[in-house]
Amino acid sequence: MPTTDPAISLRDFQQLIRQMYLEKDVARGIDGTFMWLMEEVGELAAALREGTPDEQAAEFADVLAWLTTIANVAGVDLSAAVAEKYGEGCPGCGLLVCTCDDAEKP
Amino acid sequence: MPTTDPAISLRDFQQLIRQMYLEKDVARGIDGTFMWLMEEVGELAAALREGTPDEQAAEFADVLAWLTTIANVAGVDLSAAVAEKYGEGCPGCGLLVCTCDDAEKP
């Protein structure tokens, strides 16, 4: 049985990544860890362009993991961050179904 | 009370973002939506360099939201994706506390 519940909370995923990687991440530092995030973002772009669904899923997982690992180093709680920014509807228009003009930054 | 439970599951967050933005995202397409992700990644870099903790939290939330929104367009379940990739330990060394050489790609 996977360690990660398919209905895992963002908080528990952040803790999993913390346990798995924090020591290495702190040793490497935020800038070096951000470089890894960028590498994975590039791989995600490639997978979206020409990858299989499984390859795309793997790259999404990697980007999320590296984003989360940087959040751990920076001391940011992702669960609280998204609740604060998106918990009351779109940050731009305030609605649960966004009506912002597409040219505007939500 | 925020719509988003601070202990929100990744699955529920993906559904929240789907409800909020999917129609607009599909109309814009994956490439255009990926451009927004890149813009937010740049803002995250700036916030990590010189932003306050609150500013950093907001940028982490935005990057996560845009990543999630692209996953919706691509038809990828982030919760299943991270369970598959990270649910049994580090993808590189298989351990819950990673022992990969730092030069290796996990």
From TrEMBL, chains A, B:
<feature type="domain" description="NTP pyrophosphohydrolase MazG-like">
    <location>
        <begin position="34"/>
        <end position="87"/>
    </location>
</feature>
<keyword id="KW-0378">Hydrolase</keyword>
<protein>
    <submittedName>
        <fullName>MazG nucleotide pyrophosphohydrolase domain protein</fullName>
    </submittedName>
</protein>
<dbReference type="GO" id="GO:0016787">
    <property type="term" value="F:hydrolase activity"/>
</dbReference>
<dbReference type="Pfam" id="PF03819">
    <property type="entry name" value="MazG"/>
</dbReference>
<dbReference type="InterPro" id="IPR004518">
    <property type="entry name" value="MazG-like_dom"/>
</dbReference>
